[in-house]
Amino acid sequence: MKAIILAAGIASRLRPLTDTQPKCLLKIGERCLLERTMDALISNNIKEFIIVTGYRQQQIIDFLQKRYPLQNITFIYNERYASTNNIYSLWLTAPQTTKEDILLLDSDILFDPKVITELLQSEKADTLAVNKHKLGEEEIKVIADAEGKIIEISKTCSISQAMGESIGIEKMSAAYTDALFQELDVMIRQEKLDNIFYEGAFERLIPQGYSFYTTDTSQFFSIELDTVEDFHQAQQLIPSHLY
Question: Which domains does the chain have, with CATH numbers?
Answer without folding.
Answer: 2-242 (3.90.550.10)
